[in-house]
Amino acid sequence: MARSDPILELRGVDVAHGQTQVLRDLTLVVGKGEIVTLIGANGAGKSTLLMAIFGQPRPLRGSVLFAGEEITHLPTHRIARLGLAQVPEGRRIFPGMTVLENLVMGSLAPEVDQGVMARVHALFPILKERLTQRAGTLSGGEQQMLAIGRAMMSKPRLLMLDEPSLGLAPLMIRRIFQALREIVDEGTTLFLVEQNANQALRLADRGYVLVNGRIVMEGSGAGLLADPEVRRAYLGGH
Ligand SMILES: Nc1ncnc2c1ncn2[C@@H]1O[C@H](COP(=O)(O)OP(=O)(O)OP(=O)(O)O)[C@@H](O)[C@H]1O
Ligand SMILES: [Mg+2]
Predict the structure, then answer these.
(1) Which ligand is closest in space to the CA of residue 56?
(2) Among 7, 41, 154, 214, which residue's CB has the most CB atoms within a 10 Å radius?
(3) Protein residue with its CA nearest to atom 4 in ligand 1
(4) Residues having CB within 6 Å of any atom of ligand 1
Protein backbone atom coordinates (compact mmCIF):
# COMPACT_ATOMS: atom_id res chain seq x y z
CA MET A 1 0.00 0.00 0.00
CA ALA A 2 0.97 3.60 -0.55
CA ARG A 3 2.47 5.36 2.45
CA SER A 4 0.64 8.61 1.77
CA ASP A 5 -2.88 9.57 0.66
CA PRO A 6 -3.69 8.01 -2.69
CA ILE A 7 -3.62 10.30 -5.71
CA LEU A 8 -4.57 7.51 -8.14
CA GLU A 9 -6.50 4.37 -7.36
CA LEU A 10 -7.76 1.60 -9.61
CA ARG A 11 -10.23 -0.79 -8.07
CA GLY A 12 -11.13 -4.03 -9.80
CA VAL A 13 -10.73 -2.60 -13.28
CA ASP A 14 -11.44 -4.70 -16.38
CA VAL A 15 -10.54 -3.29 -19.81
CA ALA A 16 -11.06 -4.74 -23.28
CA HIS A 17 -10.13 -3.78 -26.81
CA GLY A 18 -13.28 -4.76 -28.67
CA GLN A 19 -13.97 -8.39 -27.82
CA THR A 20 -10.53 -8.99 -26.36
CA GLN A 21 -10.21 -8.53 -22.63
CA VAL A 22 -6.80 -7.07 -21.86
CA LEU A 23 -6.87 -6.12 -18.14
CA ARG A 24 -8.52 -8.20 -15.45
CA ASP A 25 -9.56 -7.13 -11.97
CA LEU A 26 -6.77 -4.65 -11.76
CA THR A 27 -6.28 -2.94 -8.42
CA LEU A 28 -3.44 -0.56 -7.67
CA VAL A 29 -2.72 2.62 -5.79
CA VAL A 30 -0.29 5.49 -6.26
CA GLY A 31 0.27 7.67 -3.20
CA LYS A 32 0.89 11.43 -3.34
CA GLY A 33 4.58 12.11 -3.82
CA GLU A 34 5.41 8.50 -4.63
CA ILE A 35 7.17 7.04 -7.64
CA VAL A 36 5.29 3.91 -8.62
CA THR A 37 6.18 1.70 -11.52
CA LEU A 38 4.29 -0.96 -13.41
CA ILE A 39 6.56 -3.39 -15.16
CA GLY A 40 5.51 -6.00 -17.66
CA ALA A 41 6.54 -7.68 -20.86
CA ASN A 42 5.51 -6.79 -24.37
CA GLY A 43 1.75 -7.04 -24.73
CA ALA A 44 1.03 -7.37 -20.99
CA GLY A 45 -1.41 -4.44 -21.16
CA LYS A 46 0.67 -1.55 -19.79
CA SER A 47 -0.28 0.99 -22.45
CA THR A 48 -3.90 -0.11 -22.31
CA LEU A 49 -3.89 0.63 -18.58
CA LEU A 50 -2.57 4.17 -19.03
CA MET A 51 -5.04 4.85 -21.83
CA ALA A 52 -7.95 3.47 -19.78
CA ILE A 53 -7.16 5.89 -16.93
CA PHE A 54 -8.04 8.61 -19.48
CA GLY A 55 -11.14 6.70 -20.56
CA GLN A 56 -9.80 5.47 -23.92
CA PRO A 57 -10.99 2.74 -23.84
CA ARG A 58 -13.28 3.07 -20.88
CA PRO A 59 -13.13 0.33 -18.21
CA LEU A 60 -15.89 -2.26 -18.49
CA ARG A 61 -15.93 -2.78 -14.76
CA GLY A 62 -14.36 -1.28 -11.65
CA SER A 63 -13.44 2.28 -10.85
CA VAL A 64 -10.66 4.79 -11.30
CA LEU A 65 -10.24 7.49 -8.67
CA PHE A 66 -8.07 10.58 -8.85
CA ALA A 67 -7.41 12.38 -5.55
CA GLY A 68 -10.39 10.51 -4.12
CA GLU A 69 -12.76 11.55 -6.91
CA GLU A 70 -14.30 8.97 -9.23
CA ILE A 71 -13.17 9.73 -12.80
CA THR A 72 -14.18 6.44 -14.45
CA HIS A 73 -16.93 8.00 -16.53
CA LEU A 74 -15.59 11.52 -17.06
CA PRO A 75 -14.79 12.70 -20.59
CA THR A 76 -11.07 12.55 -21.39
CA HIS A 77 -10.60 16.35 -21.58
CA ARG A 78 -12.13 16.76 -18.13
CA ILE A 79 -9.78 14.11 -16.72
CA ALA A 80 -6.76 15.97 -18.12
CA ARG A 81 -7.92 19.17 -16.45
CA LEU A 82 -7.93 17.53 -13.04
CA GLY A 83 -4.13 17.39 -13.11
CA LEU A 84 -3.13 14.12 -14.79
CA ALA A 85 -0.72 14.24 -17.69
CA GLN A 86 0.52 11.46 -19.87
CA VAL A 87 3.68 10.98 -21.88
CA PRO A 88 2.45 8.44 -24.41
CA GLU A 89 4.32 5.49 -25.82
CA GLY A 90 6.35 6.59 -28.83
CA ARG A 91 6.38 10.23 -27.60
CA ARG A 92 3.90 11.58 -30.18
CA ILE A 93 5.43 15.00 -30.46
CA PHE A 94 4.44 17.16 -33.43
CA PRO A 95 7.46 16.80 -35.75
CA GLY A 96 6.60 19.68 -38.08
CA MET A 97 6.19 22.17 -35.25
CA THR A 98 9.02 23.83 -33.37
CA VAL A 99 10.14 22.76 -29.92
CA LEU A 100 8.54 25.89 -28.47
CA GLU A 101 5.24 25.25 -30.25
CA ASN A 102 5.20 21.70 -28.92
CA LEU A 103 5.72 22.97 -25.38
CA VAL A 104 2.98 25.57 -25.78
CA MET A 105 0.62 22.78 -26.93
CA GLY A 106 1.12 21.11 -23.56
CA SER A 107 -0.21 24.07 -21.65
CA LEU A 108 -3.91 23.65 -20.98
CA ALA A 109 -4.35 27.30 -20.02
CA PRO A 110 -5.04 29.95 -22.69
CA GLU A 111 -1.96 31.85 -21.53
CA VAL A 112 1.36 30.02 -21.17
CA ASP A 113 2.69 30.15 -17.62
CA GLN A 114 6.22 31.50 -18.12
CA GLY A 115 7.29 30.19 -14.72
CA VAL A 116 6.45 26.64 -15.80
CA MET A 117 8.14 27.22 -19.16
CA ALA A 118 11.30 28.32 -17.29
CA ARG A 119 11.15 25.19 -15.10
CA VAL A 120 10.93 22.98 -18.19
CA HIS A 121 13.93 24.79 -19.69
CA ALA A 122 15.87 24.24 -16.47
CA LEU A 123 14.93 20.57 -16.46
CA PHE A 124 16.02 20.05 -20.07
CA PRO A 125 18.52 22.79 -21.07
CA ILE A 126 18.91 21.21 -24.50
CA LEU A 127 15.29 22.09 -25.29
CA LYS A 128 15.95 25.71 -24.42
CA GLU A 129 18.79 25.78 -26.94
CA ARG A 130 16.50 24.34 -29.63
CA LEU A 131 13.27 26.26 -29.14
CA THR A 132 13.00 27.38 -32.75
CA GLN A 133 14.10 24.06 -34.25
CA ARG A 134 11.55 21.70 -35.77
CA ALA A 135 10.82 18.94 -33.26
CA GLY A 136 11.21 16.24 -35.93
CA THR A 137 14.91 17.11 -36.21
CA LEU A 138 15.62 16.27 -32.55
CA SER A 139 17.29 12.99 -31.56
CA GLY A 140 15.12 10.26 -30.03
CA GLY A 141 16.25 11.15 -26.52
CA GLU A 142 15.63 14.85 -27.09
CA GLN A 143 12.17 14.05 -28.43
CA GLN A 144 11.48 12.10 -25.25
CA MET A 145 12.62 15.12 -23.22
CA LEU A 146 10.26 17.26 -25.28
CA ALA A 147 7.37 14.87 -24.66
CA ILE A 148 8.03 15.02 -20.91
CA GLY A 149 8.46 18.80 -21.01
CA ARG A 150 5.21 19.17 -22.93
CA ALA A 151 3.37 17.09 -20.32
CA MET A 152 4.88 19.19 -17.52
CA MET A 153 3.53 22.37 -19.15
CA SER A 154 0.07 21.47 -17.83
CA LYS A 155 1.44 21.53 -14.24
CA PRO A 156 0.26 17.99 -13.51
CA ARG A 157 -0.11 16.60 -10.03
CA LEU A 158 0.39 13.14 -11.49
CA LEU A 159 2.65 12.43 -14.44
CA MET A 160 2.23 9.08 -16.15
CA LEU A 161 4.88 7.87 -18.57
CA ASP A 162 4.69 5.01 -21.02
CA GLU A 163 8.14 3.50 -21.58
CA PRO A 164 10.21 6.69 -21.66
CA SER A 165 13.43 4.69 -22.04
CA LEU A 166 12.33 2.80 -25.15
CA GLY A 167 14.96 2.80 -27.89
CA LEU A 168 17.34 5.17 -26.10
CA ALA A 169 21.05 4.78 -25.35
CA PRO A 170 22.03 4.16 -21.71
CA LEU A 171 23.45 7.67 -21.19
CA MET A 172 20.24 9.26 -22.45
CA ILE A 173 18.15 6.94 -20.27
CA ARG A 174 20.18 8.02 -17.22
CA ARG A 175 19.61 11.69 -18.05
CA ILE A 176 15.90 11.19 -18.45
CA PHE A 177 15.59 9.25 -15.21
CA GLN A 178 17.55 12.00 -13.43
CA ALA A 179 15.05 14.52 -14.75
CA LEU A 180 12.19 12.32 -13.51
CA ARG A 181 13.74 12.35 -10.05
CA GLU A 182 13.89 16.17 -10.17
CA ILE A 183 10.26 16.32 -11.25
CA VAL A 184 9.27 14.27 -8.22
CA ASP A 185 11.45 16.35 -5.91
CA GLU A 186 9.56 19.42 -7.13
CA GLY A 187 6.28 17.84 -6.00
CA THR A 188 4.81 15.86 -8.89
CA THR A 189 3.81 12.22 -8.38
CA LEU A 190 5.05 9.71 -10.93
CA PHE A 191 3.47 6.59 -12.39
CA LEU A 192 5.91 4.95 -14.72
CA VAL A 193 5.18 2.06 -17.04
CA GLU A 194 8.29 0.27 -18.27
CA GLN A 195 9.71 -2.83 -19.88
CA ASN A 196 13.07 -1.58 -18.65
CA ALA A 197 12.52 -3.06 -15.19
CA ASN A 198 16.03 -2.38 -14.00
CA GLN A 199 15.92 1.41 -14.40
CA ALA A 200 12.29 1.66 -13.33
CA LEU A 201 12.67 -0.36 -10.13
CA ARG A 202 15.81 1.55 -9.17
CA LEU A 203 13.90 4.81 -9.38
CA ALA A 204 10.59 3.66 -7.90
CA ASP A 205 9.42 3.56 -4.30
CA ARG A 206 7.05 0.74 -5.18
CA GLY A 207 6.26 -1.42 -8.14
CA TYR A 208 3.68 -3.76 -9.60
CA VAL A 209 4.29 -6.60 -12.02
CA LEU A 210 1.72 -7.08 -14.80
CA VAL A 211 1.46 -10.43 -16.58
CA ASN A 212 -1.25 -11.02 -19.19
CA GLY A 213 -3.39 -8.20 -17.86
CA ARG A 214 -3.19 -9.18 -14.19
CA ILE A 215 -1.09 -7.85 -11.34
CA VAL A 216 0.88 -10.84 -10.11
CA MET A 217 3.26 -9.19 -7.68
CA GLU A 218 3.77 -5.93 -5.83
CA GLY A 219 6.45 -4.64 -3.53
CA SER A 220 9.03 -1.97 -2.88
CA GLY A 221 11.28 -1.06 -5.82
CA ALA A 222 14.29 -2.54 -4.01
CA GLY A 223 12.35 -5.65 -2.98
CA LEU A 224 11.21 -6.40 -6.53
CA LEU A 225 14.68 -5.68 -7.89
CA ALA A 226 16.07 -8.34 -5.55
CA ASP A 227 13.29 -10.87 -6.16
CA PRO A 228 14.61 -13.98 -7.96
CA GLU A 229 11.46 -14.39 -10.04
CA VAL A 230 11.52 -10.75 -11.17
CA ARG A 231 15.21 -11.03 -11.94
CA ARG A 232 14.66 -14.14 -14.01
CA ALA A 233 11.72 -12.75 -15.97
CA TYR A 234 12.64 -9.09 -16.40
CA LEU A 235 16.31 -8.57 -15.66
CA GLY A 236 17.86 -11.28 -17.80
CA GLY A 237 18.50 -13.45 -14.76
CA HIS A 238 21.48 -11.39 -13.55
N1 LIG B 1 -6.23 -0.72 -30.24
C2 LIG B 1 -6.20 -2.03 -29.99
N3 LIG B 1 -7.11 -2.89 -30.52
C4 LIG B 1 -7.07 -4.20 -30.27
N5 LIG B 1 -6.16 -4.80 -29.48
C6 LIG B 1 -5.23 -4.02 -28.92
C7 LIG B 1 -5.18 -2.60 -29.16
N8 LIG B 1 -4.13 -2.10 -28.48
C9 LIG B 1 -3.55 -3.14 -27.86
N10 LIG B 1 -4.20 -4.30 -28.11
C11 LIG B 1 -3.87 -5.63 -27.58
O12 LIG B 1 -3.96 -5.55 -26.16
C13 LIG B 1 -2.90 -6.28 -25.55
C14 LIG B 1 -2.12 -5.36 -24.62
O15 LIG B 1 -1.48 -4.36 -25.41
P16 LIG B 1 -0.73 -3.12 -24.78
O17 LIG B 1 -0.30 -2.26 -25.90
O18 LIG B 1 -1.54 -2.53 -23.71
O19 LIG B 1 0.52 -3.85 -24.11
P20 LIG B 1 1.88 -3.25 -23.54
O21 LIG B 1 2.13 -3.92 -22.25
O22 LIG B 1 1.82 -1.77 -23.57
O23 LIG B 1 2.95 -3.77 -24.60
P24 LIG B 1 4.31 -3.07 -25.14
O25 LIG B 1 5.34 -3.33 -24.10
O26 LIG B 1 4.59 -3.82 -26.40
O27 LIG B 1 4.05 -1.62 -25.35
C28 LIG B 1 -2.08 -6.87 -26.67
O29 LIG B 1 -2.51 -8.18 -26.86
C30 LIG B 1 -2.43 -6.00 -27.86
O31 LIG B 1 -2.33 -6.74 -29.06
MG1 LIG C 1 2.89 -0.37 -24.49
Answers:
(1) 1
(2) 7
(3) 17
(4) 17-18, 20, 22, 40, 42-48, 89, 195
pTM of the complete model: 0.94
Q: How far is CA 193 from CA 39, 66, 106, in A?
A: 6, 18, 21
Write down the H helix ranges in 87-211: 99-106, 114-123, 125-129, 140-152, 170-185, 197-203
* pLDDT, tens digit, 9 for 90 and up, residues 103-144: 999 998 888 999 999 999 999 999 999 999 999 999 999 999
Stated as kind and residue range, the H or E segment containing 35 is strand 35-40
The CA distance from 14 to 221, in Å, is: 25
Q: What is the pLDDT of residue 3?
A: 63
- Domain coordinates of the chain in residue numbers? 1-83+156-238, 92-155
Ligand 1 mean position, distance from CA 16 (Å): 10
**Residue range 22-49, pLDDT digits in tens:** 999 999 999 999 999 999 999 999 999 9
Query: CA of 13: how far to CAs of 40, 44, 113, in Å?
Result: 17, 15, 36
CATH class of the structural domain 1-83+156-238:
alpha beta
From the CA of 47, how far away is ligand 1's center (Å)?
7
